Amino acid sequence: MISPDTIRTAIGVVGNGTALVLFLSPLPTFYRIWKKGSVEQYSPVPYVATLLNCMMWVLYGLPAVHPHSMLVITINGTGMAIELAYIALFLAFSAGAVRRRVLLLLAAEVAFVAAVAALVLTLAHTHARRSMVVGILCVLFGTGMYAAPLSVMKMVIQTKSVEYMPLFLSLASLVNGICWTAYALIRFDLYITIPNGLGVMFAVAQLILYAIYYKSTQQIIESRKRKADQVAMTEVVVDSKNNNTSSGAGANGSY
User: Which of 3, 140, 166, 255 lies at a C-alpha separation of 20 to 30 Å from 26?
Assistant: First the structure.
């Protein structure tokens, strides 16, 4: 028979894969920043917040804090590297107050995680206590990360359009949440269960909204295309009239 630990490891590996997809999802945004040479109106907050979340989970997964959590370390260590690359690119193409703000946030995060690590490792002398302190912080930050799509869901309801809520990312979020919830339940881990269980709920809510507003989204897109075509036709007609008028004026002037 396959042991529960083997099943847990296999689920964790799948969870690593789906989480990696989510970490890489902003790549088109940063490709655009690189091509344009400017961060435009993009906010660095989501990437700085994700970096903090990853650093806290890496701390949680350390053998000195919560043993047997290597898969938690691998994906969040990878996430840290990816987010640092995003932030480095953001710093390279920003300037002035925006750059200073990002650097300050980055320094504050590193100082915070270092302080938590130092305090936990020196004042808490058992794995249970260390896991509890770091785990509670991870739940707070992790829940905040999973709740981030609420603003997008609000926009979907207001506009009756899922145009800016990609189905692929919603599905990836659902699979990721299911994998890590199952991973946490096999060898019960409350601190991984809570944020990922909430992540499943939010992903299901996104998919329900997608099903509700898919048709209206298509109608909105078609209406937009028709309007664009009408504007283009109007411009062609106006240009044609202007050309005819100019030709007539030139002909009259030649007599």
Answer: 140
